[in-house]
Structure prediction request, 251 residues.
Amino acid sequence: MEFRTGQPRWADLVSRDTDRAVDFYTGLFGWQATAAPSEFGGYITFSRDGHNVGGLMENGPDPGVDDIWTVYLEVDDARETAEAAQTEGAEVLELEDLADLGTWLVITDPTGARVGGWQNIAHTGFETTRGAGAPVWAEEHTRDYRAAVAFYETVFGWETEVLSDTDDYRFTTLGRGADAVAGIQDDSATLAEIEPSYWELYFGVANANETAVRITELGGALLERVADTEYGRMGHAVDPTGARFAILQVA
Prediction:
């Protein structure tokens, strides 16, 4: 796959119970899990029908870090991106060269959302973003919509389209129409006072209702009932250790 600047290129989960995470996601999406060599710290790659769709690593002992899916955006230069992000009010959490794979960047953006950047050398990134079991969409839910849009335009080079800008619903995408690959949603009215902004990754499913039942059977939980929207039938959930994700019914 080819990735434009600022497009979600990869995502991985940090989990305090990687064995349980493997059981949950392989059972839910039919993924395969492959462990990397020991020098990569036990990193696990998830794949669907031989195509890489995400990663998994153990969460550290820091009690302030929740289990979370991190979305990594394509960047040309991770260090320049880190500097630009800091200038625009972000906090740099990680910046590291990973052997011959590329350079890994993780930040907290100015609205409080954790997001990554990836400067690629030899890592394939997502090998599919279509169909059941694939990561089909990613978006930030933010408590400061205009600041978030300005940040991603400035730091990650987003070329945006405003889909809605009313008090009831504000939403901006990276790309236009069918070429859109990510979004930013104003959730200032719905996020709890202590809840930070966050990125959410959507996985395609063949049947949202059946997948919702399976989520609970495997130890996860739905955050709200599956519902029809203008973008398709979807639901929002957490896995057994609390990491957020979403499901979207695809044809």
Observations:
- The chain is about 15% helix and 40% strand.
